[in-house]
Amino acid sequence: xxxxxxxxxxxxxxxxxxxxxxxxxxxxxxxxxxxxxxxxxxxxxxxxxxxxxxxxxxxxxxxxxxxxxxxxxxxxxxxxxxxxxxxxxxxxxxxxxxxxxxxxxxxxxxxxxxxxxxxxxxxxxxxxxxxxxxxxxxxxxxxxxxxxxxxxxxxxxxxxxxxxxxxxxxxxxxxxxxxxxxxxxxxxxxxxxxxxxxxxxxxxxxxxxxxxxxxxxxxxxxxxxxxxxxxxxxxxxxxxxxxxxxxxxxxxxxxxxxxxxxxxxxxxxxxxxxxxxxxxxxxxxxxxxxxxxxxxxxxxxxxxxxxxxxxxxxxxxxxxxxxxxxxxxxxxxxxxxxxxxxxxxxxx
Amino acid sequence: xxxxxxxxxxxxxxxxxxxxxxxxxxxxxxxxxxxxxxxxxxxxxxxxxxxxxxxxxxxxxxxxxxxxxxxxxxxxxxxxxxxxxxxxxxxxxxxxxxxxxxxxxxxxxxxxxxxxxxxxxxxxxxxxxxxxxxxxxxxxxxxxxxxxxxxxxxxxxxxxxxxxxxxxxxxxxxxxxxxxxxxxxxxxxxxxxxxxxxxxxxxxxxxxxxxxxxxxxxxxxxxxxxxxxxxxxxxxxxxxxxxxxxxxxxxxxxxxxxxxxxxxxxxxxxxxxxxxxxxxxxxxxxxxxxxxxxxxxxxxxxxxxxxxxxxxxxxxxxxxxxxxxxxxxxxxxxxxxx
Lengths: 348, 338
Prior knowledge:
The structure holds two protein chains of two kinds. Chain A is of the alpha+beta class. Chain A has eight helices and ten strands. Chain A has helices at residues 2-38, 199-223, 235-245, 250-268, 277-283, 291-305, 315-333, 341-347; strands spanning 53-58, 71-81, 85-86, 97-100, 103-118, 122-133, 141-145, 148-153, 160-165, 168-172. In chain A, β5 (103-118) and β6 form a beta hairpin. Chain A is elongated, with a radius of gyration of 48 Å. The termini of chain A are far apart. Chain B has a five-stranded parallel β-sheet. Chain B has a two-stranded antiparallel ribbon with strand order 3-4. Chain B has a two-stranded antiparallel ribbon with strand order 6-7. In chain B, α14 (295-306) packs antiparallel against α16. Chain B is globular, with a radius of gyration of 21 Å. Chains A and B meet through α4 and α6 of A and α14 and α16 of B.
């Protein structure tokens, strides 16, 4: 009876341990399977036929002068003939640190992005990889952006091929710590000169020079009595243009005389009257040839504006004379000799 | 009739000017202005230094105008009643009252000459103020009229002792304040100093013809001038702008050196002042043989008819003459016509 009881206990015990053991074994087998799947990508595959792939690679322009923290970018463009297509899981992973002889290389993938374009016969993959330098040393140190192995899936499930992006070798310069580096021991002729980035400064300089040039042009415009050309926009030139547009009637003649009065006042910088034409000609000698014409202009002005009894009705002749006189004034304003014969002819 | 009358009187006026220019040399502009005032029926205040010929000039005009002429000297103890009457003890030993200078010529008084007006007290100015404005005076229970009277006064700006500033109300009664300055011309200065005919003023004035103008017809003729000479709308607009500029010169961009323009003018020209200016401008146009007033006519009389009417801040009163001259020149230069 006791033996039976012992056997039953032993059986119960053995069933319990058997179930635990079998569960553990299953877990180990499953984990081994997953590991083996995970590492399936790392297994070397045959190289893709050379005629099936084209590489367009853009590496950093210089291979020296990098220090810890610098970022290097590679642009890889792969044109792969169908039926091959990229296995995205074989692309490098951001944050992955590569090791060489169990030592970290100090070059880390910082960021990766890729895009795909397809046509009837091929796929084109554009892969941008940013590497960041995390290594330095007391002297310039040769390092490399690693050769990346990228795999492609063929037509069949087990037709997996690979392609190796060549590595890019460059030098990492040491960070100079005050007192740690003696410049006389670091005069290698192989070191290129350290070039500053002048583009932002150039942009600022161009912007400042443009602003300065515009300001000077604006200033010249203001100082030039708001005229773009030296002889443009002067009082009599403006008045002559206005007079051309006026109608040949009483109102037009009145407006024309007012406009010439304005031009005279602007030129003299004071109000000019009949009793101050001599002073005007003395202070503006360019108008001296028109002294008699000025007197006649004021006579006309008086007749039109102030003489209530003797109003002239020959508006056409008056307007013609005013336009001619204004052009003569414009010539004087420009330093030219006016053609006095034109107004002499109109007197007849 | 009117045209003939205008021409005839213009000849008289030119005769008057020519005669006086022979006696008072180098003062063509003041003589023209006084002639203008006579035909505008406006009172005249002459201002200038001592001995520049103010009194001689006024006496000369007085002789040529004709009519009653009275004169009084401004003194610190002069009282208003001294202008109206004076008392004395007669040969009979009894007190007598005689008419004073204002009443002595009655209605024929044509010129009342007040010498050194700024020496008289404000009470005298007050009496004169009424006489000038209304040409009437109440005395001896009677209203006396002086329809032909013109007041000629003078003052010198040099002396300030025992003088009283003429109030702006009294100044406004004068049509013109005319500055008299010594002429700059060497020949004239030499003549004034060495020519013996200028040494005796009484004899000099005696050489002038009497009654060149008929004093009792001047009022009527003045009305003829005012109605005959036209002022166009453009000229009226110009005159109004000038008036506005005397009130707010800053609005017209007028500046006077060394003066805060925002504080300078307390009061611009008065309506009476502007009407007098236009009267004088019309007379000037007539004297220049024109039938319409031009801006130049206004310019001729602008300073003399407006400068003394402007009321400045007290801080600028001491420099009144030079500031007024610069201000009004600035106004003429700033206001355009048309």
